[in-house]
Structures are given as C-alpha cells and as structure tokens.
Amino acid sequence: MIIMDMVVLMADGSIANIEIQKISYDFPAERISCYSADLVLRQYKMITGKNQVGKHEPSMNGSSKPSYKDMRKVHTIILFEDSNKSLISDMDKALYFHVGKTKFNTGIKIELLQDFVLVSLDTFRKYRYSDIKEGRTEITDYDYDSSQYNDALVSEKMKRDRLKFLSLFVAETPQEIDRLIEIFPDLESVCRDINEYLERPGEVLSMFSEALRILDRNTAELMVDRMKDEIVDLREQNDELKASSDKKDAEIARLKKLLEEQNK
Residue 96 burial by CB count (10 A; 0-12/13-18/19+): exposed, middle or buried? Predict the structure, then answer.
C-alpha cells in the first residue's frame, strides 16, 4: 500500500492536502471527511495563535483578536491511481475531475470552508492521455468545469498545467516521459527534481498527522481482518463440500456393492 501526501499553505492562508492514493480504501468518503476535518483544525490552531498569531501579532483580518472570519478555505485533493466504482460518473464515464463542496437545497449563498477534489487517474489515462501524448492539449469540458470555479481566477496556464502534471502522474515508461517533455518542455526540470527526491526519500515521505496515521493503520488492519474472515468462510465451505463429497462417495460405494450382490 503506497500513500503519499503533502500539506500546502497558500498565499491567502488557505490550506490544501494533496494526496496520491494507490489502493482504494473500504470507506473513502469517511476517510476524506477526516482529512478535511484535520485541515479545518489546523486552520483553527493557526488563527488562535498556536502557530502563526503571536501575542503582539495581528490576525489575518487585521485585528489583534482572532475570529472565525480569519478562517480560510481548506482543500482536500486526492488522486486515485485505481479508482473504484463510486468514482465513475453516471453523467459521463470519461469525467475524471470531481469537484465537491457543500451546497444548500434552497440556494442560499453560504460558502463553507471545505472543498474536495477527487481525481481518477485511471479514467484520465483511459480517456484523455492518448490525445495529450499526440500533442492535442486543448482544454475540453472534461478538463475544466466553469461552474465550479471563478473563471477570473483561473488562467489558461493553470488549466494546461493541470493536464501537464496529470499526464506525468500516469506516465509509465521513460519513453512516455520523454514524449511529455517534448510537449511540455518545463517538465524536464520537474523530472530532475523528482530524481533528486528519490535519492533522499526521508525528506518527502511522511504521514499527514498522527491521528490519521492511526486511522490509516486501523483501516488496513480492518481490510486484513476481512480477508481472514473470507478465508475462514471459504475453508468452511470447502470442508462442507468435502464432507458432502465423502457422503456421496460412500453412497455410490454402497449402491455399487448392492448391485454386485444382486448380480451374483
């Protein structure tokens, strides 16, 4: 099981957790919610002075006293290498970039703090990657949904960068990476940095928080326990089948013996 994650502090004070998850968990929605809640707690600690606001430092809103208005957005971004059926859109199975936020049924305009972005890398590779390798990097409706973002804040470069990095994430061979560098020349320096990180994995591999590390471990243990239960069930079924087979063999032997006695 490979899990890599990174916590990023934005210039406006918002926080993003970016994670690449290789194997889907049994309860992705619950785990995603816990990660987002952890980010909100980090924000709260920041504005109440535990991390950023000192005794004589103003809070983010310019006041000497922190308030809820200081809270900034938290973004939980998870890239699934192997997405499960819950990440396949009923609208269009080729949709790979899933953006979520809390909305109210009456349409009231209250912006809550938590945003979610779930990226299905396998869907991206299946339906978009071949076009990009051919140099067709025009932004499509699959790559960007204007209903989810403020268009004024999203540049064409940002959209293209998304395609660039998602393509790098799904590349499987050195030849594919070389082709991507031809299409996106600035990827060369990124690949060089990655090679340097591989030589010092301790600098980039760390858990998101102790609480979430425990949850991750417990979830893995739960999956193992379930597999053990399945093995026990299969063994019991096998024992029952074997017992049934033995009874049938005994009955066949009895009938054969009866026929032999009758034929004498």
Answer: buried
